[in-house]
Structure prediction request, 87 residues.
Amino acid sequence: MNYDLDMPPYIQEMADWLDDDRNVHSCNFDSAYKGFEIMMAMCRSVVDGGQVALPLAQADDELDKLKEKISGAKVMLSTPANAKEYA
Prediction:
């Protein structure tokens, strides 16, 4: 059912899902987790220097390991005005 033509699509999806459980919202947990897992696999790939199989077999702290891996890298400035933020 279309409630409001000016309603943002993600809100309309939520209303449709509330009306009928078969119309699952595209941002449901299962979809969101797949995206999260892909991002963590990309981080793990940078840290390990190679390919990473999905689904991830074990939990890891990819963000901390990624910070350690790139902590010494200088930030590439998009404009000279950004230099004050990234000393």
About this structure: The CA atoms of residues 9 and 36 lie 22 Å apart. The longest helix spans residues 29-48. The chain has a mean pLDDT of 86.
